User: Fold this.
Amino acid sequence: MRRTKLTALAAFAAVLAAAPVAGAQRARFDTRVFARIPPPGFPAMAYVHPNGRVYAGTYVNPAGSGSRSRVFEYDGDGTLMRSWTVPGQELSKDHGVQVATSDARGRLVLLDRSPARALLLNTAKGTFARYATFADLKPCLPLQAGTDCSPTLEDREPMANYGAWGPDGSLYVSDYLQGVVWRVPPGGGAAQVWLSDRRLDGSEFGTTGLALAADRRTLLIGQGSSAGLGEPNPATGKIYAIEIRPDGSPGGMRKLWESRPTDLPDGFGVARSGKLYVPLAGTANQIAVVAADGTELERFPDAPGGGNNESAIPFDTPSSARFLGTRLIVANQSFTGNRDNQALLDVEVSERGLRELIPGRDTSRPRLSRVSLSPKRVRAGSHRRVRVRFTLSERSRVSIRVERRGRRHWADANGFSQRRAAGPRSLPVSTRGLRRGRYRVVLRAEDRAHNRSRHVVMRLRVT
Amino acid sequence: MNHLDLSRRELLGAGAAAGASVLARPAVADAARHRRRRPARRSADVVVIGAGLAGLTAARELMRDDRSVVLLEARNRVGGRVLNKPIGGGEHTEAGGTFAGPTQNHILDMARELGVGTFPTYNTGDNVYFADGTRMTYSDSGPTGTAPPDPTLLPDLTTVVTRLDEMSKDVPVDAPWEAGSAGDWDGQTLEQWIQANSVSPRFKALVPAATRPIFGAEPREISLLFTLFYIAASGDEQNAGTFERNFNTRDGAQMFRFVGGSHQIAARLAHRLGSRVKLGTPVRRIERVHGGARVVSKHHVIRARRVIVAVPPALARRIHYAPALPADRRALAREMPQGTLLKVTAVYDRPFWRDAGLNGTAVSLNGPVNACFDDSPPDGSPGVLFGFVGGDEARRYRSQSKADRRAAVLKNFADYFGQAALNARRFFDTDWPGARWSRGGPVGIARPGLLLAHGRALRDPVGPIHWAGTETSNYWNGYMDGAVRSGIRAAREVIDEL
Assistant:
């Protein structure tokens, strides 16, 4: 008895000793290479889709490129799954795409540089459709104010940069060069100037990140510089907060945070805590952490400039940060053209991101209730069918898996799926070919939006 | 020559991996019963065609996602181009895919998950380089790795490998045809480029000695773009591909082997899939119908919402499609043959070459065997050498008598490792080009112009039909890792659509 206890204790101790290794937590700011971006490179943004995959477009090559832009799809572990080539670009001009967000149907929203447009990419079918266009605005005349001109000092082309959905289904899009925030009406079409402000004139380094805050009515807007002289210090970047009023019009814009000179803050990620993780694409090559009240809390890495994050690839023009679980996926654009640094980096930050608002997206799971199996015991070789009865909360595909109990685990014996409407339903399950033994019947429902019910497990005996 | 599409008796007699045998028996018996019946009609979410590693992986992913799936395999075994052959004493040698290496995490993870262990390829001692009657030994820890440090070819070797590595960085692994210089690179063969960029005749003779085992082809048969893509693909998302990682044993693609043989992975996957796997069921026809497809074989007519064709393009074209596939896809399948590669195996009482401080790896300019490796079990008993016979050497070799083939191979081994190599206890070769359900190996090869013109058709689904197989993989194309990757990718594509 005593020996048994000691053995058990030793085994328990061994498990305890092994536990930290098995479930090893990554240290905050531990950085790894998520994936190198294949040519044509220059990833400016990585978008984390609600489906858990990461999408990155290839952006402008400042040295010029005749290659069409690409969109890459990565699994959550960084495995390259698929890619698509963007059609209809003007290859003689600067061209590139950013995957800004996704819509209720899961399609990707791409912001294209040339022509200035938003595209919807249906990843299942590989098809592209135009969603919005962005106009080339003339600079506003002195004393002219309004929604059909650009507040910038110089006449610049449109450059749709980041996007975020508003609560009413509008898509808000920052314009890097024209000093405005666009609003694309629900359903798409020509974008309208929603906000025009001299503080958004950054000359060459303009309006960047855009995100809806946790209150779902405040837009956070990143600004690379104020080189257009809308602010006292032209060299610093800013993050502004602006309310979307109930009637959809912009409220007053207030400065939430100001960076150090030449930091060039870019596409930031918002944590559930309200903290902002702001990649600094300028000379700093750091990630700044900014509290919800605008206080700068810390920077990673500590020293600006070299971007040394202790991974195989340093931060080199880090241009966007989005949450994947407790990790930040940072797009390393390497604007100077070091293709070895053009990659997505995975930075552990030990907190989760704010769930993105995607209007109209079905996030409710189907429910299975009143589930029963009859009969629960059949004879082997009887070829009898058993019937599974259940009530579905919404139209779903119901999958049934029959598993046989083995020595170590349950082994699949049979399985199929059928679509069923909401309400009380039933499905027959064949027992043909089942040997004697203990079985379990596992039931699950999945709706059109790929939301899944919980598994329901019932026992079946074949004698 | 061993025929790879084994009969039931051959399969059981050969004692292929236990799991496979267990699976094969009821399936073959099923097939016999079905011969007297009309084809069974049934439906499934997905039909997967081809029970190689790609198809098995795809089916496993679908099963895990609660999709109903049927896996149809023409042979009476699973594994495709992965095959164990018994060598006595309960030991096996691999007649197909054998190795894994760094950055091949998909196949290594799968093996781990299935309880198949790995062990390092025997690499203690020197490599052998044999050229025109001269034998040289060298360590692969030098700057050239597995490639021979022959002073007459070293300058060209260094320059060419560096340039190929550098050029390959401009090739997107997911779409080589989108490379900036794709037009130029796909307009020439590797041989043309080598002729223009090297001077040493011996180096030019070494290049085929590399392409034969890697592609089963001569440098004149493959496009430069395809070669660059293959190099770019010899890595993963975190590590850029290099020629060295592809070619080397140390820190390269030949670094690890699987305990019990690589076929264990396929057999165990099939075991988990259970009755979903239907052996001896060649698919004859795929009809695209409203809402999915109808897959017709001799014994089954299966209505499915999606189909994954997990066989090489050259085999996929042997299926009848209604309506016909798009012209791009048809052209791709027509113009992408499998490489011409055989594996030859000699079994000895013990690995005698190790006594002489050799690791069993040889690179030779003189065929038929241009590259060989120590394929002994982990405990070194018995001693096994296997060699690759590819390209023109394979075409010549296949036309010889069995005795001549044996003599030629053992003479090669004797040249590399000493006269003891002539006393093989057992010798066999594995003729992949003659295998009805493989048509060659290790991979489909792209001649000039193919990738640029039809490369997109490799993975683009056609209605409900999706494509898997190592030929469709972005990384480790042509390897077991690529097959697993492609299976996962195809399954995700399908799951997105269901």
